[in-house]
Amino acid sequence: MVEFRDVQKFYGKFHALHNINLQIDQGETVVLIGPSGSGKSTLIRTINRLESIQGGKLIVNNQDLSNPKTDSNRLRQDVGMVFQHFNLYKNKNVLENVMLAPRIVSHIPEEENKKQALHLLDMVGVADKAHNMPAQISGGQKQRVAIARSLAMHPKLLLFDEPTSALDPEMIDEVLQVIKKITSASDMTSLIVTHEMGFAKEVANRVIFMDQGQIVEDDDSKSFFERPKTDRAQQFLSKIITH
């Protein structure tokens, strides 16, 4: 599904990702945790080519992202992404936001597209906001719309880049519950960058702990949270507050 082989990423002279070797299989729910600036968001952004790599090889759905001839638009049809700040189209209502990509990219008939969009909005709990503009709904509702929009393209892989970091504390749980529902009800592969440790412990099949651009630990969720192997992971877990 996803394979990193000695992947390197630089921002100028700053070495953002060091020798990343990682394999993610179909159906896994993988959570990336670690201190701010550890490379978590950079790592998942390389998977749909929002960030390029400067060394090594990255294979996603049998497509070689280190090959400049690989079609990024084709790649992104299979790899959805939910951003920190929603990125909804402000001039389109909620329903239109969800319908747009299937209409333009997949050419789904309009009635079928509308039926699918309403179903997805219902699934994430915002069907009653279908005709509202983004400015008329809360941050938590916007993020749920963004999740529905990503699901509308039936991605094989869904990336979440700190999906609750821009939300008020009282809105965090509603978004986390939607993500939990999605990951537990399908065989879609999910990679989630989060600082919500209680959620990570509950939803992840596997936890990857990063620090200073490197993978420090990669283990199943239970083992990582109960018996972290490295001093650095133990130190990190001792300082965080479980949500």
Q: Based on Cα principal axes, name the global outline.
A: globular
The CATH class turns out to be: Alpha Beta
Strand arrangement across the biggest beta sheet: 6-7-8-3-9-10
Reported CATH architecture: 3-Layer(aba) Sandwich
Rg, Å, rounded: 18 Å
User: What is the total number of structural domains?
Assistant: 1
Derived structural class: alpha/beta
Spell out the helices and strands N to C. Answer: EEEHEEHEHHHEHEHEEHH
Please identify which CATH superfamily we are dealing with. P-loop containing nucleotide triphosphate hydrolases
CATH topology: Rossmann fold
Mean pLDDT: 93
What share of the residues lie within helices? 25-40%
Describe the sheet with the most strands. 6 strands, mixed
| Alpha-carbon distance between the two ends | 30 Å
Strand content: 25-35%
The number of helical runs is 9
Low-confidence stretches: none
Number of strands: 10
InterPro entries: AAA+_ATPase, ABC_ATPase_HisP-typ, ABC_transporter-like_ATP-bd, ABC_transporter-like_CS, MetN_ABC_transporter-like, P-loop_NTPase
Family: Belongs to the ABC transporter superfamily.
GO molecular function: ABC-type amino acid transporter activity; ATP binding; ATP hydrolysis activity
Keywords: ATP-binding, Nucleotide-binding, Transport
